[in-house]
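Morning F.,

Quick status update on the modeling queue. The single chain you submitted on Monday has been processed. Sequence for confirmation:
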Amino acid sequence: MLFNSFEYALFLPIVFILYWFVTNKNLKAQNFLLLVVSYVFYGWWDWRFLSLIAFSSLVDYIAGLKIEQSDKRSTRRLFLTISLLTNLGFLGVFKYFNFFSQSLADGFAQLGYTIHPFTLDIVLPVGISFYTFQTMSYSIDVYRKKLQPTNDIIAFFAYVSFFPQLVAGPIERATNLLPQFQKKRVFSYEEGATGMRQILWGLFKKMVIADNCAVMVDQIFENHETLPGSVLIMGSIYFALQIYGDFSGYSDIAIGTARLFGFKLMTNFRTPYFSRDVAEFWRRWHISLTTWFRDYLYIPLGGSRVNTGRAIRNTFVIFIVSGFWHGANWTFIAWGAINALYFIPLLLTGYNRKNTGAIAENQLLPSLKEILQMGLTFALTCLAWVFFRAENINVAFEYLSNIFTQPFLPENFYYFHPKYIFIIGVWLLLEWLVFRHDNAFERIHHTAPWLRRPAYFVLGSVTFLFMVNEAKSFIYFQF
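Structure tokens below.
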């Protein structure tokens, strides 16, 4: 079920009414309702895969209790291993088996041997990379004694499957979200209004920015062999804006929806394209995933508090694994490796922790130095995004090569249509004006409340006028 679909527009108010007006007197009833509607939400895509999320939840629920009950380190490690192998096993079979099988066959082909790879005719369950990481963090935190396991199986299953963030995050830690299922929730009009404002902002980013950019991105990448270099550059920029509008828009809708039900999810994006270096970009982009890898992979490997060689190794590990998390394709691995190459010079010079303060502190506009820094960072990011978007490695290199070998100026300016330049320009202006707030409506709400209704009307009208006719799926559903 898509957030931008007619079905969801009916689903959400029905759930809201049942939650606050029927089950509001009983916490367990509210949690059970959220569990049921979350399974309906997920099963709307394909009910057969409900068994996977249910089994994963059950394994981690039992593992958490067994880890807590035992004083033996070997027993505790055994149940942690069962939890990790179950979740990683699901990922391995459904997401990576065919990739490894085909890659093995390709490797033998390079040596002159022909083998026929064995592949599985299966569909990738939507959101599997998100909820498996969410359940693994629970088991790991219980093992590390950072979290007491819960005996409430309904609350735990509802935490794993919570529908606003089930399919594409944010990837919530049990230390933050699970306790919210275990305490009474009282409706707050202010929180509900804040949630609605964030939902509207997310829908604008998805339906106006991302979906309109997607039209151009698809055309440019499909015809990259014949298009001028300047158009190919615009294609990479359009995709950078598409994936940000798409993914951060989803996160905004998820966070806003959770607020309607009395839950607070973590912020997943903080205007990443206003970053002054790549390290700052990764502190602002997909925060729930980058902090997950930091806490459960990078720091256990030693992080940067090791010798130079190991620090470089750890950097490559976390970025390549992050790329591989996104998909079973060499393009994602290359994307991760490129970002590691961007990051290492900052790490070696100690510059990776320099730009941690606010941009344009106490100023309306950034300095010339900050503008140049942001421009360079955005250009490097767009270059890496080409690998993320391309069908395969060869297409990515061909795309980048054509930027410099094809004629630079186009014969017509279709791909520079004023409509797209206008809506992107307005959006970026709003992003800059509100980068210290959750969304544009929040800024207006706090600084000029008399503008709220006109702002709702204007943005609603813009969304209606510029939205793409057919509702498009979210990019991160495939991960």
